[in-house]
Structure formats: C-alpha cells, structure tokens
Amino acid sequence: MTAHERDLPRPSKTRTVTVAYAGGEERRGPVAMGQANMIRCMLRDEPEHINIHDVWPVPAGTRTDAVIDALRALVVRHEALRTTFPRDEGAPGDAVPREQTVAAEGEFTVTVLDHDALPPDSEGYADAVARRSRVERFVLERDFGLRISLVVLAGAPVFVALAASHAVTDVSALGVLREDWLALLTGAPLPPQTAFTPLDLAAEEAAPAGLRKAAASLRYWERIIRTGPQAMFDGPGAEGTEVETPEVTLRSLRGARALARVAGRTGALPSTVLLTAWCALVAHRTGQSVCVAAVPTSNRFHDRLVRSVNTVSQDALLALDVRVPSFDALLAKAWGAALDAYRHSRFDAVALWETIDRTAFERGSRFARDVVFNDVSALSGTGGAEPDGPELELGRGPVQVLPTRLLAFVHETEPLLRIGLWADPALFAPGGAEGFLTGLVRLLEAAAEGDVPLASLTAATGVRPVERGPDWIRVDGCWVSPPAVADALGDALGGVPVHVAADGAGLTAFVASGGTRLTPARAHAALMRVLPGRPGVLAPRRYVIVQDPPGEADRTDAWLRRHLLTEGNGRTPAEPT
Predict the structure, then answer these.
(1) Nearest residue to 213 via CA among 72, 47, 348
(2) Which of 307, 322, 364, 524 has a CA positioned 20 to 30 A from the CA of residue 28?
(3) Which stretches of 228-291 are DSSP H helices?
(4) 10 Å Cβ neighbour count for 503?
(5) What angle is formed at CA 363 by the lines to CA 362 and CA 365, rounded to 5 degrees?
(6) How many helices and strands, by DSSP H and E, does the chain display?
(7) Using alpha carbons only, what angle is made at residue 503 by residues 502 and 505, rounded to the nearest 5 degrees?
(8) Taking a C-beta distance cutoff of 8 angstroms, is the pair 446, 265 a contact?
(9) 3-state class of 394 per DSSP?
C-alpha cells in the first residue's frame, strides 16, 4: 500500500452485493486479434500496468438498487462482459487462449463503500479506489471482467469506481459502457446494437478478406520499422523500458476555441487538426523528420467498431513526414497518413512481434514505442454543452509506470480542450511537460490566425528542440552516436577495443579481437542482445575484425592499415559463426 493509499478515507461500512443476471445468449468461438494482443500483455506485464479503470459519476437522487439494476442490464446487453477465456488443455500457463466463451447467465459482485463524509476531491478519491482495484491480476478462465466499487455518501451513491480486464474492454469500450449505463439509469433510449461483438469481429478477421488485411498490416508495420526512426527520443535519459511518470492535465477553453477556428479555416476535421499539431510539436521537440506515433483508439474508424464493447487495442502506427514548409502543408498530408495507419491496425500480434524481431536483427535496431496519442474525445458526450472551464489550466494527476516516453489522452475537444499527458521526467525538465501542453495551445492559436511556418515553431510555441552533441549524426533515418555504438559493442564483447566510423552508407565497426575467435555474426548477435532500452545505438552495417588496435585508436585510417582477419555484415547466415 502506498503512502497515498494510506491517506485515503476509510468507509464507515463496507458490504459486498452479489448480482445475478440471466437472459443473454450462450456462445463460443475464437478470440479476436485485439483480445489475443491484450491477453499476451496481461500474461506478461504487471496487472496494475495493463488493467484499466474508470469512474462514473452517479446522477443525483439515484438509489443504490437502481445503480445495480442498470449494471445488471449492462452485463446482459454486452457479450464482452459475460466472456471468459478457457485455458487450452495442455498449454503452458503463458499461452494465449484460442477460444472465448460467452455465458447466458451468471453473477458478479459490487463492493459498496458507505462513507459518512468524503474528501473535497471526491472524484479523485473515487479514482484512487478504482486504481487500487487494478493491482490484482484477472484470471482469464473464470473472472468477471469488471471489479466494481460503489462509493456511497450517507446512503446515497456518488460514484461507480471500476477496474477492467483489458481482455474484454479498452478505454473506448468503457466510454460506451458509461453512456449505456447512464441511459439505463435515466430511462433514455439505448442506441440499437449494430456494433461488432468480440465473436463477430473474430469471425470477420478469420474470413479470407480479414486475413488479407492482417497480412497487409504486417507489411505496413515492417516498412515503418525498417525505415523510420528507431526511437523518437534518444540519448541520455531515454534509456530503460519502464518509466514512472506523473500525469500533467490541461483544461483550456482557449485551446478548444483555437482548434475549432483552425478546423473552420482549413476545412479539416478537428481531430485531424489536433493530431497534426501534436505530431508537428513532437517532431520539433525531438528533432526528428518523421513523427512515428501509436494511435490506439483510431483503429475504431470502422462504423461497426465505433461503439463496440470489446478490446480493439491494437496500435494504428502513424508515420507522418514533417519535412514540409508549413502547418497547412502538414495538415494536408496528415489525414492520408492517419487513414493509412487506421487501415493497417488489425494484425496477429504474435506474427507482428516475429516481424519486429526479424526486422530488428536485420536493421540492427530495436523499435521503441515512444509516443502514444489516444484520442477518446468522441465518447466524451460533452459536445454542444455551454462553455464552462478555465482559459488555460494545468494540473497534476497520479503517477503511473509506463513503457512509453510521451503518452497523451485527449478526453475532450469541445467546448473544453482536456488532455492528460504523461512525459518521461528524465527527458522533460520540471515544467517541461506543462510547457509542451501550453505550446500545443499556442500552436493551435497561431494556426487559427493563418498558416504557420514549421521553421518558426520555437518562437510560436516556446518549445525548444532537444540539443544533441557534436558526435550525433543521422544514419538510416535515426539519430545515432557512433561513440555510444562503440561503447555498447565493446561492452557486449567483454571490453575489447572498438572504433565506429560513419560514411554515406552507414556505420562501420572496427573490432580488435585480441586473438579470440570473433566473427561479424558473433559481434552483431552480442550487440543485439544489449540494444533494448538503448536508443541512439544502431548496429553497424559492417564489422571489420582485426587482431590488435592501432596506436591511434580514434583514427579510421589507422584501423584500415591493420591486418584484416575477417569482415561482414553479421546478418548473413552464410557468414561463419
């Protein structure tokens, strides 16, 4: 238990309500690709990192039994909430199940936390309750997919705080569930059930057309991973794979007004405008010529996926080349690039990782999922509301451990721009994340007035590009430090002398074997083993093995005069190992 959790108020009374449901249809079939992807993560990652959560405010005057009745109706309405994943007979514990089963009837529990008083930030307290429910792993073959707590004040329900299995829902699905639950509580009509169920989606994916789409997605991903930046962030501070990151929040009427004006001026969709501004600023901050970002919710572009209660959690991988003169020129490219990403966001996760691993070995790099942009504003349900909020307000939220460097959740775009941002504190100095969000609003305001030259982004936004030392060069679309490559390779080979030189074709590593039976293949394999979590290190295209280092070990011409033992790219199977 953290110190923050110890400070949470204690309920005066806690009880567990068992809720029976019936009336659904019993079904069985294969898992969908998104489910398999998230189950793979659930079996590998810590539960508090992969489980998700949400908080639903309860309308004033609602009785506890009405809240529970609406939850029961929600479970009957949505197959995903009645789904479990039986373990394949004889399969190892970390194997992804191949089937899912949908129950016609069953039961779930609601933990009622009754309080005599709540803290001033009652929603923050409910959020902490939901987060606390994330820390226990969901047992796929038997557990109900939601852990539900009902926060009650003096007998009146105030919030539903829940954690969810990522095998049955994603953030967008939780938004759909919240809308349906509120409709059930208020008697509003529910939208017709036209969205894919998980089994419907799995059937479409297994059809010939679905298999062709999955194969095309793998080719699309391979092209980006083979040619784009291996990491958006590089250098000191961008090392390691799990980052403890505080949330920074933006609430801004200014930002929403500016976004609407840019959309009106250019005729582009507000979501495309915001994505373009985000990519422009990320590429500017990182000094990259291409913005590579995962846009997970954007794979719901299909009509029957928009309101699907399912985990459609497969990245749409966006690669937007920012080598254009102005914001409007970039905006003209962004929709096509985004659509290309969306169309290639359905794939077999195991096959994708095989593609990533093969490409990493051949290119000599390790792809880093550094930047994630998750726009869930379409499910906020606030469009058309009267403006209410600050012109520009920045706040702080809870700390999370994330495997990314920069993660944004766009919660609203009108009438308020509301974004949650997690920025790696090793890369963003104190105030840097706040400055980045403020810069995003400033960019939207500048673009609302007219086209913005991308060369003027520092002046327009106040966000400065990262400064790299004189040893950094661009090789194969990546920023690389040859001395860092030499250090990494030397360490991987037990401390042997290494010199790395760059030319127009890439990097060449000169390695002094000292009499050991070293080959290019062994050198490359050793370097690949230490690459994860080391951006700025790209494997040489060629390894030159000599006996001993020259006296002037920093001079390439001196290494070239040494007696050559063997050379090669280290990737060719025919090379001796």
Answers:
(1) 348
(2) 307
(3) 253-266, 270-286
(4) 11
(5) 115
(6) 17, 21
(7) 115
(8) no
(9) strand
For 391, other C-beta atoms within 10 Å of its C-beta total 11
What are 453's strand-pairing partners? Answer: 326
Per-residue model confidence (pLDDT) at position 3: 40
Q: Which two tokens stand for residue 322?
A: 């920012």
The helix or strand, by DSSP H or E, that contains position 5, with its residue range, turns out to be helix 3-6
What single string gives the DSSP state of each residue in 405-417?
A: SEEEEEEE-SSSE
* Longest distance between any two alpha carbons in the chain, whole Å: 86
Q: Give the Cα separation of 24 and 4 in Å (integer).
A: 41
Structure-token pair, residue 323? 């080598």
Q: How far apart are CA 114 and CA 35, in angstroms?
A: 35
pLDDT score of 76: 96
| Pick from 246, 209, 221, 175: nearest CA to 426 | 246
Distance CA 439, CA 449 (A): 16
| Look-up of token digits 């593609």 | 355
Token pair for 191:
């939208």
83 touches 100 (CB < 8 A): yes
What's residue 6's pLDDT?
53
- The pLDDT score that the predictor gives to residue 346 is 86
Residue 49 confidence (pLDDT): 85
SS (H, E, C) 93-151: CCCCCCEEEECCEEEEEEEEEEECCCCCCHHHHHHHHHHHCCCCCCCCCCCCCEEEEEE
Which of 521, 278, 240, 515 shows the shortest CA–CA distance to 377? 278
Query: Does the bond joining 47 to the residue before it have cis omega, within 30 degrees of 0?
Result: no
Please, are residues 412 and 384 in contact by the beta-carbon 8 Å criterion? no
CB 338 within 8 A of CB 272: yes
Q: Which is nearest to 27 in space by CA: 120, 81, 104?
A: 104
Q: What is the pLDDT of residues 306-331, one digit of tens each?
A: 889 998 867 889 999 999 999 999 99
> DSSP secondary structure string, 475-523?
ETTEEE-HHHHHHHHHHHTTS--EEEEEETTEEEEEEE-TTS---HHHH
pLDDT value of residue 312:
81
Pairing of strands 542-546, 506-512: parallel
Under a CB-based contact definition with an 8 Å cutoff, are residues 243 and 401 in contact? yes
Q: What is the pLDDT of residue 280?
A: 98
Q: Is residue 529 within a helix (H) or strand (E), and if so which, with residue range?
A: helix 520-529
**pLDDT value for 362:** 94
CA angle 489, 491, 492 (to 5 degrees): 60
DSSP 3-state percent helix, strand, coil across the chain (nearest 5): 40, 25, 40
The three-point CA angle 139-143-144 to 5° equals: 145
Burial of 201 (0-12, 13-18, 19+ CB in 10 A): buried
Extract the tokens encoding 103.
């129950």
- DSSP for 37-70, please give it: HHHHHHHHS-HHHH-EEEEEEPPTT--HHHHHHH
Task: Tell me which residues of the chain have a pLDDT lower than 70.
Answer: 1-7, 241, 297-299, 301, 313, 379-387, 573-577
